[in-house]
Amino acid sequence: MSRKKIKIKNKILPDIKFNSILVSKFINIVMKNGKKSLALKIVYSLLNMIKLKINKNEIDLLEEIINKVRPMVEIKSRKIGGSTYNVPFEINDNRKNSLALKWIVKFSRKRSGNSMIEKLYDEIIDISQNKGLSIKKRDEIHKIADSNKAFSYYKWNNKK
Asked: Could you tell me the pTM of the whole model?
């Protein structure tokens, strides 16, 4: 029997303002260097800007944007017999959401602009019009997965 301790996964609590776990995850991904209060200001200002400019429910729009960016598969490298294959794996819903949120934040940070709020807002507007870099990343991963569909057999093998 293994003596290794099993780490209990921390539960993410819903945020204070919207009582949403999705917004709480978004805040945690926007956060840099442990500055959660700054991340709270950024996300709440972004959601307020969405509410004022688009006249939609901000939580519904955020869920819609995340559903557009979510990848269906993930690519992992497997080394079999001396050659490396990119093997497509199906992923669960939590992983899909976290990848989508990470891509949105990553590509909005790469944008040129004044504030993080404006960059996130521009990325969300581009995603709603199917133009954002996050959408391109999702399409690129799906294209790689389609081209490597023949190697999906190797996902059942352990790393050798």
From this structure: 0.86
